[in-house]
Every structure is written in structure tokens, then in C-alpha cells.
Amino acid sequence: MPRIGRVVLPNYPHHVVQRGHNRQVVFAADEDYRRYLADLRELKDAFGVKVYAYCLMTNHVHLLLAPGDSVAGLGQLMKALAARATRYRNRLEGRSGTLWESRYKSSVVQTDTYLLACSRYIELNPVRARMTSEAGDYPWSSYRERINTAGSNWLDVDPGFLALGQDPIERSARYEAFMKQATTADELRLIREALQRGQLTGNSRFVDEIAHITGIRIEQRGQGRPRTCREK
């Protein structure tokens, strides 16, 4: 079967991961994290990309991004972020060479069914890695900004989060409860495999929807519907 190139669609959310070259450390100090987030905040507007969630880990980043009408913006954003971080690290350490893997991984995400699940997956990364016991204790993810009832001054509000309630207090409370629900093994497997293989994070209806748009049928294995915030 021929390899399908990366699928990027306008105005759809995409789960994106970029790793350090040979899994090397890319964030060695707090200033490294701060600079990356400052660049993300600046460049997202320059390239017309919405940022719904993020988590910066020691040797990789998870981002939940939605390009606008121009799909090129997503790739341009990732390229610019990587270039800035590389220049900074090379200057700091008096070195040359690449900091990141040349190709980031991405998966188009089904908004109504999997967007919140992907946000939770991203923001729970430090907990799964045993770096912290609570998502709210980790300073380099979007979780604190997401549940801040005063809102964020730069993070975009995704449709899934907006649908959780009538006001910021209700939405924040529901999302906190959602974060505490146990994530099923099927949900974890689907998100991971979709990202690793460049497939879709969604159900069979989403596969049909994307096939209609692109003319390409991107099948995946192990599909299952995650619980929503309103399900017990």
C-alpha cells in the first residue's frame, strides 16, 4: 500500500508532536520553556493558527493546533518554532546542528468526539510520565490557563471546551471533572496510534467525512468512542 502523505485540513484541529533529534533534551532550563511559549504566542497569529492545548516535555512538545483557511500555516508555524529554538540553543551552547527531528507527527482530530479527549491526553502527559501527580502542578502545559475562569490572554478556546457550559465557571468545573475520569486503554491507544501513523483521531463517521473532503480514505484500527464530560 502506498504511503499517504501528511493530511492537513483547513479549520480542523490537529494533534501535533515534535521531538528532539535522537530524543535529545530540548528544554534544559525554565528559560527554554518560556522562550518557546513566547514564540508560540507570537507566531500563531503571524501564521493564522489557533492553539487549543499544549504541553512542553523535556525532549518533545505536544500541541493541539487548528490552521485557518491556509493549511500551509501549520507547517510554517512548526518550522519557525523549531528554527528559533535551535538558533537560541546553538548560540547558548556555542554549537551547530539541528535540535529537532526533521519531521513532526500530526493527526487530524474529530472535533465533536475527540477534541476534549486529545486536550486531556496532552495535558496529562506529565502525570503519565510521573513528573507530577496532578496536571495543575505542571507549569508548562495549557491546563492552568484552560481552567482559569478569568480566561487566557492568548490561548484559543476550542469548540469542545466551549460546549461544556454556559459560563467560564461551569466550563472550568466540568473540564476539571473530565480530567479526573479514568482514560480508557482504547482511547489512549487510538490517540497514540493515530499520531504515530499519521491517521485520523476519530470514529468511522469521521473517516467518511474526511474521505469525502480529500478523496482519500484513511482507515485506522482500534476505533472507539471516548467518554465525554457528561457521561459517567
Automatic annotation (TrEMBL):
Spell out the InterPro entries in the cross-references.
Answer: Transposase_17, Transposase_17_sf
- Which GO MF terms are attached to this record? DNA binding; transposase activity
Q: Where is the Transposase IS200-like domain?
A: 9-125
Can you tell me which residues the record assigns to a coiled coil? none
User: Which GO terms of type biological process are on file?
Assistant: DNA transposition
UniProt-recorded name of the protein = Putative transposase
Specify the species. Answer: Pseudomonas pohangensis
